[in-house]
Amino acid sequence: MLDTLSPAERVAFVLHDVFGVPFEEIAPIVGRSAPAARQLASRARRRVRRENASRETNRLRQAKLVDAFLAAARNGEFDRLLALLDADVVLNADQTAARMGAAQEMHGAAEVAEFSRRARGAKPALLNGTAAAVWMPGGQLRVVYDFTISGEKITAIDLIADPARLRQLDLVIPND
């Protein structure tokens, strides 16, 4: 979030908004006048708010796409799956998922949609705070579907099934 700010904006913002340092003391640090330091912090605040709002909008968009994907898979709606996937979508499966029957890599909406019909038993989850899906036969976590979106389409799906990697994921699985 702060990495998009200029160094002077970052310093003014953090020193003032986080540590409460007066702008008169910040000014010499950033090589500007106190009013200019105030403006740097103000600009940084606006940019951070915009980024947070944009991130939240993307999270909501991803959640809607994942829910639609799961509903289409559950109902066997091939055409709906096609509509949700980018024409150049890529599905990558780790070695464990490949041993379970997934190709290590699939390209194109038709191929990925055809495979995604198998996601009938998957359910929603959160991975690193964003919408994902999990497959848990018998209540045992077996596969995580990590989605990448752009605009209103799913552009990539990563299937994670390696038990060691599954244990390391920041994963939230809602109770039914």
Describe this structure in words.
The protein has seven helices and seven strands. The model has no long low-confidence stretch (mean pLDDT 90). The chain has a seven-stranded mixed beta sheet with strand order 2-1-6-5-4-3-7. The chain folds into two domains: 2-54, Orthogonal Bundle (Arc Repressor Mutant, subunit A), CATH 1.10.10; 56-172, Nuclear Transport Factor 2, Chain: A (Roll), CATH 3.10.450.50. The protein is α+β, with helices and mostly antiparallel strands and 176 residues long. The chain is 49% helix and 23% strand. Helix 1 runs antiparallel to helix 2 (23-30), helix 3 packs antiparallel against helix 4 and helix 4 (78-84) crosses helix 6.
The stretches of 5 or more residues where confidence is low (pLDDT under 50) are: none
N to C succession of SSEs = HHHHEHEHEEEEHE
What is the count of β-strands?
7
SS-based class? alpha+beta
CATH topology tier name of the largest domain: Nuclear Transport Factor 2, Chain: A
- Determine the strand fraction and express it as a percent band: 15-25%
Order of strands side by side in the largest beta sheet? 2-1-6-5-4-3-7
Q: How much helix, percentage-wise, in residues?
A: 40-55%
Largest sheet: 7 strands, mixed
Question: What number of structural domains do the residues give?
Answer: 2
N-C termini distance: 34 Å
Shape estimate? elongated
User: What average pLDDT do the residues reach?
Assistant: 90
Q: Quick one: CATH class of the largest domain?
A: Alpha Beta
Question: In the CATH hierarchy, what is the architecture of the largest domain at level 2?
Answer: Roll
Total of DSSP H or I helical runs spanning 4+ residues: 7
Rg value: 22 Å
